[in-house]
Design goal:
The complex is a heterodimer of chains A (124) and B (174). Chain A has helices at residues 9-34, 87-91, 120-123; strands at residues 37-43, 46-52, 57-61, 64-72, 75-81, 100-103, 108-114. Chain A has 124 residues and is an alpha+beta fold. The model of chain A is unreliable at 117-124 (pLDDT under 50). Chain B has 174 residues and is mainly alpha-helical. Chain B is 79% helix and 0% strand. Chain B has helices spanning 2-29, 45-55, 58-75, 78-102, 108-131, 140-170. The chains are: A alpha+beta (124), B mainly alpha (174).
C-alpha cells in the first residue's frame, strides 16, 4: 500500500460529495412535499387515530383526555397536556414527514407520515 | 513457507476480529452525536477492515466483515446482522473497486470516506429490503455528509495507528 494519506484533489472530491448530497436533499424534499402527509397518533404503541392535516381543529381523544392537540396550516402540535415536563407542548408544531412529538408520561406519540392514509395500514 | 504465511493470516484475522469487537463495544458506550440522527455511528471497526483489506488479503477483509456481522447477530439479532453484513460488504467492494481503478492515485482519506458512505448505502438498501420502507431515502443526503465526517475520522485513526499495527504484525515475520 503506497497510497498517500491526503492529496490536494481530495478537497475537490469532498466538495463534489457535499454538493451531491445537497442536491439529493432538495430532490427528496420536493418529492415528499408533493405527497400528502398526515399525522398518526399513537397511544401505548398503537395507532389510535390518523389525522388529516388540512383540517383546522382542536381536539382531545377519549383514550387520552388529558391531552389536547391542535391541527392548523398542515401542522400538528400538543397544545395542552397534564404531564409535568411539558416536553410535548414545547416541541411545538411539526409538519415534516418523519418528525414526531412525544409525551412519554401519557404514552402518546404524534408523528407525521407521508403517503395516503388509505395504504397506511400496510406500513404500521 | 506457504503454510507459515497461511497461519500468519489466520492468526492476524483472529486478532483483528477481536479488535473489531472491542472497538464496537467501545463505540456503543459513546454518546450519540448531536445534530445527527440516532443510529449514525463512528464506524471505528471500518478502520480495522480497511487495514486488513490493504495489508493482508481481500479474503480476510470479507471474512472479518462476515464475522463482525455474525457478532451483531449473536448480541443484537437478525436485522442487525443483515444491516451490518450488507454495509460491510458494500464498503469493502467500493474500496476494492476504487483501488483497482485508481491504483495509487487515490488517497487513503478518500478511500475511507467512500468506504463509510457505501457502508451507509448498503445498510439503507438492506433496511429498505427488510422493512419495505422507502422513506429512508430522505436520509441519504444526511448519510453522505455523515459518511464524509466519519470516514475522515476513521481514515485519520488508521493513519495514526498504522505504525503500531505494522510493528505488531511485521515483527518476526520472516
Amino acid at each position: 500500500m503506497k497510497n498517500k494519506f491526503f492529496l490536494k484533489k481530495d478537497i475537490l472530491i469532498i466538495l463534489i460529495l457535499v454538493i451531491l448530497s445537497a442536491v439529493i436533499y432538495f430532490i427528496t424534499a420536493s418529492y415528499y412535499s408533493d405527497k400528502k402527509i398526515y399525522a398518526e397518533i399513537l397511544h401505548d404503541k398503537k395507532v389510535i387515530k390518523k389525522v388529516d392535516l388540512s383540517l383546522q381543529t382542536k381536539f382531545s381523544l377519549p383514550d387520552i383526555p388529558n391531552i389536547t392537540l391542535e391541527v392548523k396550516n398542515n401542522s400538528i402540535a400538543f397544545i395542552h397536556s397534564d404531564c409535568p415536563d411539558k416536553i410535548c407542548v414545547n416541541t411545538g408544531f411539526i409538519s415534516h414527514a418523519g418528525s414526531s412529538a412525544a409525551c412519554l408520561p401519557n404514552k402518546t406519540v404524534v408523528r407525521i407520515v407521508s403517503s395516503s392514509p388509505d395504504d397506511a395500514d400496510a406500513v404500521s | 513457507m506457504k503454510q507459515d504465511k497461511k497461519t500468519k493470516i489466520i492468526t492476524m484475522t483472529a486478532m483483528l476480529l477481536s479488535l473489531i469487537i472491542v472497538l464496537s463495544i467501545f463505540e456503543s458506550m459513546l454518546p450519540s452525536f448531536p445534530f445527527l440522527p440516532p443510529g449514525v455511528k463512528l464506524g471505528l471497526s471500518n478502520t480495522v477492515i480497511m487495514y486488513s483489506l490493504f495489508f493482508t488479503t481481500k479474503k480476510s477483509a470479507f471474512f472479518l466483515a462476515l464475522l463482525k456481522s455474525f457478532f451483531s447477530f449473536m448480541t443484537i439479532g437478525f436485522v442487525a446482522f443483515a444491516l451490518s453484513l450488507s454495509g460491510g460488504i458494500a464498503s469493502i467492494l467500493i474500496m476494492i473497486f476504487l483501488t483497482a481503478v485508481f491504483k495509487d492515485k487515490i488517497s487513503l482519506l478518500i478511500l475511507s470516506i467512500f468506504g463509510a458512505i457505501f457502508h451507509n448505502i448498503g445498510q439503507i438498501a438492506a433496511y429498505m429490503l427488510l422493512l419495505g420502507d422507502a422513506n429512508i431515502l430522505c436520509y441519504l443526503s444526511v448519510l453522505i455528509i455523515s459518511g464524509i465526517i466519519m470516514g475522515s475520522i476513521t481514515g485519520t485513526v488508521l493513519k495514526l495507528i498504522l505504525p503500531a499495527f505494522n510493528r505488531i504484525f511485521t515483527k518476526n515475520s520472516d
